[in-house]
Amino acid sequence: MPTIRLFKHYIQFSYMLLLVVEAMVIGASLEIAIGLRSLVEGEPYYANFSDHIRVSVVFVAIMVLSLFSMGLYHRQLREGFSGMLVRLVVALVAGVLLTKLAFLTFRGLDVYFPFTLAAAFSALGILLSRWLFISLVDLERIKRQVLILGTGKSAALIDNRLRRRTDRRGFHIVDYIHVPTEGDDVIGPANSITLNEPLLRYARRRRVDEIVVALDERRKELPIEELLDCKLAGIGVIELATFFEREASRIELDVRASWIVFSDGFRRGALARAIKRLFDLLISSILIIILMPLMFLTALAIVIESKGRGSLFYRQIRMGEEGRPFNLLKFRSMVENAEKDGIARWSQRNDTWITKVGRFIRRTRLDELPQLWNVLRGDMSFVGPRPERPEFVYDLRKNIPYYQERLRVKPGMTGWAQICYPYGASEKDAFAKLEFDLYYVKNYSVFLDLTILLRTAEVVLLGKGVR
Fold it and tell me: Which one of 64, 162, 303, 452 is at 20 to 30 Å from 195 when CA atoms are compared?
């Protein structure tokens, strides 16, 4: 299955096709629900044609966005049927509520449209389409046939980092090719071959679509002429780092510095920065006004639990763009003076200093609402790498390559790492999350920002990554 790069972000074509099919299923479900209700009530459907088209388009659009926001078109979704069913139910319920809310100004219009019944039919149709989709995308013959050139440590990263079935829905590994001059053979002779024929002939015989160059040492081992023959014959040739970026939506930290320098991305023009800032100003201003009652209730709950003692907000120094420090605002979710010894610690599950109200507002992300002021002031953006404490940044920069690069952009209230990786509370987690942060920094676009904002609903509603 081909992968499409849309606004610098990789999207698997099969999932785009699934989205289109399920949009048609939702539209058909609405028509069936309308017809069934007319049949049961014995009254003809009498909404005019323009209302019908307008409502149908809005209903389908909102339902598809709800499905998308719950991660149901994310190719690395690793949950089983029960997990997918929970996401589907939440998405459909949210979609129906949002549709009804959208038409509040059209009094009585939603009476003619049985959205709830349509959502029930949609659920059945989507489950059927998902079953067919999973059956088809797991067929090896329709996947991209990939040949790995190399059997050393670099090649072994594919087996170590992309070992799950969900990781390999877009490709099938035909073979690992051992190059005799390569050093360590990590893959081993049982799982690799040594060619006794030209690379192009073998690739054609095995119907290879793409060759991934994964050699540890290239100065003596890289068969330039043979790879060029393959490329001229229509067989794709890509580097391991590009392969990981496309298939896993992250940047491997083992990548050569030269790849970062010469690859596209890692640049943002003045226009893109201006658009992002304008979006932050507009949306943060609107949300502060809309969410003021909710913030007031959150503050009231904190005051009642603490009996008026202690501060309402929690201020903490974080590292911003280009390493500039700023005061991050949160509603206080911990007991007063939780870090009175002055030692910075990673947050852990079931921390004893978190209050009862604090645990709830952390789970629902209400504690982060004051960060809208940080966005309005320009300390943060809606989307970007999460800001870390200076104490952690100083240590992580010493131990993790390219960690400084995540400071090239403004930190965000949500980010690519937050929707792709669970909560991190260690240096190992920081290493893994940096791979996703670098993908965002490299491939920033308005489209990617909107994608992240939509999928943040999944993090909030399902309580992902809560401590």
Answer: 162
* CATH number, domain 140-249: 3.40.50.20
Contact 4, 105 (CB under 8 A): no
239 forms beta bridges with 213
Amino acid at 190: A
Residue 351 has pLDDT above 80, yes or no: no
323, HSE (Cβ side, Cα atoms, 13 Å): 8
Residues 430 and 406: beta-carbon distance below 8 Å: no
| Cβ-proximal residues to 223 (8 Å cutoff; 6+ apart), any chain | 149, 179, 199
| Residues β-bridged to residue 381 | 412
Can you give the pTM of this predicted structure?
0.82
Which of 217, 226, 224 is CA-nearest to residue 152?
217
- The number of CA neighbours under 13 Å toward the Cβ of 5 is 12
How many beta carbons lie within 10 A of that of residue 310, not counting itself? 16
Q: Quick check: 302 and 328 in contact, CB under 8 A?
A: no
Question: What DSSP character marks residue 336?
Answer: T
β-pair partners for 211: 147, 237
DSSP annotation of 59: H
Handedness of CA 350, 355, 356, 361 (dihedral sign): negative
Could you tell me the sign of the dihedral formed by the alpha carbons of 367, 373, 377, 380, in that order? positive
Q: Which are the contacts of 59, defined by CB distance < 8 A and separation ≥ 6? A: 26, 27, 30, 99, 113, 115, 118
First CA to last CA across the chain, in angstroms? 38
d(CA 100, CA 178): 60
Could you state, in order of their start, the residue ranges of all structural domains in the chain? Answer: 3-137, 140-249, 270-461
**CA–CA distance, 109 with 52 (Å, rounded to integer):** 10
Q: pLDDT for 157-210, tens place per residue? A: 888 888 887 778 788 899 999 887 777 778 887 788 888 899 999 999 999 999
Closest to 407 in 3D by CA, of 420, 392, 423, 421: 392
Cβ neighbours, 10 Å, residue 305: 14
